[in-house]
Amino acid sequence: MIARFQWQDASTVQDAIARLDATSMVKAGGIDIMDRLKEGLDSPAMLINLRTIPGLNQIREDASGLHIGPMVTLDQLDTNETVRARYTALADAAGHAATPHIRNVATVGGNILQRPRCWYFRNEQFHCLKKGGDRCFAQDGENDYHAIFDNRICAIVHPSAVAVALVALGAAFEVTSTRGQRQVPSEQFFVRPDEDVHRENTLAADELLTAITIPRPASGSRSAYMKLGEKESFDWPIAEVAVVLGAAPAVVLGAAAPVPWRAAAAERVLASNPINEDTARAAARAALQGATPLRNNSYKLPIFETVIRRTILTAAKA
After folding, report:
1. pTM, entire model
2. 290 pairs with which residues across the strands?
């Protein structure tokens, strides 16, 4: 079926917000939304183009930290000198996503808000739990790339690489509607299936993500991101990890759970021991406590353990 909708170029944030409702959708870079339209997942009455709004594609740093517009492309994040020098995990996460031509179009806002890539969710022939059905087909089906944590209700993995880094870096999201603005810590922005299986974040139908802020890193802190997929380039990750080392270490896993997954046990190991090979190994083992792999994805456990250890050691050398 061909999707039919009205196209609307927004001139300002207020103009876009005024048109938002349950029947409209916004287009940033358009990578995910175009896939969803072709796959029959969405059929909006109106598609609101955000590329025509000036000022949403800027990166700036001040004394409080880094401020990123939602229309900043992944390539901008990857190549920005400030981001790469002080927010390295974010630059690396953006730079390892997709392909160069997609990174030149895809935006940070779109990457954060993209829908799950589970093949059952994306296939219109499967009326899965997330689409209002009565079962998660991945539980007993092909679940090689699905979640190893928090997978009892819905086994998707969160698809955003930059979200993994943003949670590790303590980012917050500015959300705007006709009611005003609210600041949402990134860790509280994403919704687990046991909270609401039909959505992945707290963004309401009449709200727009308008800014991302990251606090300025403490002196001496370092960060790193690593990804491992079946192919080195343009593949979705089997495992990805963002690590921040400093007074309050952070270890966040991607491709592991329906949300960017905070490995609190690993963080406690890093906080109480000098960073070396033995500590990295202990933290990697601790990060996998409580994992519940499915029938076909227990192979992810040793892969995650290796990637976590390597990411910690990479951050330590940064």
Report:
1. 0.97
2. none
